[in-house]
Every structure is written in C-alpha cells, then in structure tokens.
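Changelog-linked ticket: adenosine monophosphate example.
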Amino acid sequence: MTASRILVLNSGSSSLKYQLLALGGDGGGNGNAARLATGLVERIGEETSRLVHEPLTTGGGRRERDGRVADHDAALEAVADELAADGLGLDAPELAAIGHRVVHGGLRFTEPTLIDDAVLTEIERLVPVAPLHNPANITGIRTAQRLRPDLPQVAVFDTAFHATMPESAARYAIDVRTADEHRVRRYGFHGTSHAYVSRKAAELLGRDPSETNLIVLHLGNGASASAVRGGRCVDTSMGLTPLEGLVMGTRSGDVDPAVVFHLHRVAGMDADAVDELLNKRSGLVGLCGDNDMREIDRRIGEGDEAARLAFDIYIHRLRKYLGAYYAVLGRVDAVVFTAGVGENAAPVREAAVAGLEGLGLAVDKDLNAVRGHEPRLISPEGARVAVAVVPTDEELEIAEQTYTLVSAR
Ligand code: AMP
C-alpha cells in the first residue's frame, strides 16, 4: 500500500510552520510515519521575511530564502515551490489532506474536525476567546483552501484533549450567568501535546493508557501541566486563555486577578497594556530579561541573582502544580516531562521533584543527565512513581489524527 501524505500547517500571525509526513503505507502508520520535509516562514509581511526549508528524505540540505513574503498566500506558495523542488509538490496525488493546528475549539470542537464553511464560521465565533491565535489559524486554513480547494482540510484543536475535564475543574467560581453568557471557563491548551505524550508515556511504562494516571508537564516557552486519569484529562493549568498556570517564557501564569484592575487604577494601564504586560513581558523574561532556560542556567552558574530568583519562582510554581495534581489524581503512576525545557533542562527536572521522596518521587542523577530523542525513565529503579522524559511531537499527532479522520471517510 502506498503512503498518504499529510501536510501539517501551524499558522501564526506572522509565521507559517509546516511539516509534510507520509502515513499509512508499508512501513508507515502505527506510529511509523515518515517525515518528508519541514520548515518555517517567519516575519510574513515584513521586508525581512525568511523561509527555512529542510527536505528530510532526499539527502538535500537545509535551504533558506530571505526577502519579503507579502502575506500567508505568498508564504504557502513559496512553501509549495520548495516542496515541488524536492519532488513533493502539493499537487501530487499522494497528498491526502492538510491538517491545521487550531488553538481554540471552545466547547463545540472536542475532536479533529473536517473543515467546511459552518466549521470555519464556528472557529471565527471563537475569536473573542482566542484573539491572538484563532485569526491566524483561520488565515492559514483559508490560504490552504485557496491553494487546494479540492483537498480535505482538518482542524485539530489545542483545547480538544481537555474537553473531558469535569465541571469542578473547568469552571471558575464566578457568577454562572456571566460566565455562560461570555463563555468564560477553563479550556486548557497544548492538548495535542498532552494527548501524544500521555499515550507515549503509557507505552514506555508498558501499561494500558486506560489504567494509567499521569502528571504531564509540558515545559516549553509556553508551559502547562495536566492531570490525566486513565488517558483522559481531568485538570490542566491553562484556562480561558494560555495565560493561566505555570510561569512561562514570557507569560506570568497565575496572578491575583486584582493585579489587572490595580494596574489600571494606579498606573492607568488599559486592557491591552495589561494583556501585553502579562503575555509578553512577564514570566522568565519579565523576571530576569531572558526566557531561554539555557541562558538562565549559564547566568546562575556565574552567580547572577536575578536569574537565580527567576529559576526559583519558576520551580516553586511547578512544584505547587505537581502537588495539586497529585492530590487531584490520588494515585500517580508517572510524572512526565516534555517540550523544550522539560526535554532538555536536567536542573529543572531535578529541582521539580527534589525532596519529594515522601510522595514516591525522585530522579536518578545519572539517568537525568542522559540526553536523547527517545522516551526514557529518569527515576531510580523500583521507584514508586516513575519520572519520565517523553519528547513531544505535535505535528505527528496532528498528522495521525488527520489521517485517521480522512481514511475513515
Ligand atoms: P519549546 O517552546 O517547546 O520549543 O521550548 C523552547 C524553550 O526550551 C526555550 O525557550 C528554552 O528555554 C528551552 N530549551 C531548549 N533547548 C534547551 C536546552 N538544551 N537546555 C535547556 N533549555 C532548553
């Protein structure tokens, strides 16, 4: 059987990330997807746009193109040209579908969804709850539809995995009518990653996902924790938007909501100004000027106090969520680290569980120091609760969900 190709698009306001994968052929499917090409167009609309394209099977090296890319249409056309140059053109009959990462699916979308006009309208209706993300995702979908109107387009939602949260975890304790009228509730994000990592972690433990309880810590530039019982999310740290929860690269995570009106009253900051402060100038970057954990680690090594405090605040919040989700789950089989920081920053993993032997949690120093791309255990042999590092792969998860949906049609 020949493989089907799936193009995965992750469209941001000024960027377009893509990956082309082959699934379902001999040697494909069942997690054996082949990655054919990957790349990114950044600074779309500016003079300094750049396309970086990397073919992964032809042996050709990475190619870069600098120069203005006017809009997302032009960006996707440039991507199509690069793929065509590798013999992977988007007009090839092997291309079965395009899978789009869509950030907010609200209450309506809890599964990967074939996109039609009604679905697009509904994604647009969610713009007020995801003003930074959904408009860019919609642009990506429309662009892809113009390029290949005949092809199935599938939306895979970042919120979907969290739709199983009980009302006790999903609701804020605010007036119910106001909340319902304006759809104010906790949706959670990074769901594609939490879903993928949960499945892979159960595989690593040799357990059935339906009988496995996990705390998944997705620590990237954005960061979120989730409590997963038997393969289903029962709580997660991000809320109405990706701002709630852990300390992140540039986002504050949890603050007293009164900070917002306090800054309005005493500093005259309007909603947009506070939004920008909490989303872009807070978190690690707000605390010490750097949001890259490698740089923070290096500065700590030089005795930099601001970097040390930023790290301590980051870890303190992480440990609070770890403890909270331990209590939410009652029994925990594994704590799983993923994403840029979780997969690479051994000091973060060590500090996150330090002194928690009473909860059955510990990391083995040597195992924690190992680097690699494979899922691995870092807890000591025979530990009551496993601690694991499981590299995430959101593109593969989107491709697999897209493939499953279109092959069932
Ligand atoms: P992500 O959003 O998952 O791509 O993660 C990006 C973040 O991962 C960066 O901002 C860094 O803080 C962190 N990171 C990436 N590589 C390393 C590394 N080798 N050591 C420590 N942190 C890293």
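Closing comment: Example verified and attached. The longest strand covers residues 34-42. The chain has a mean pLDDT of 95.
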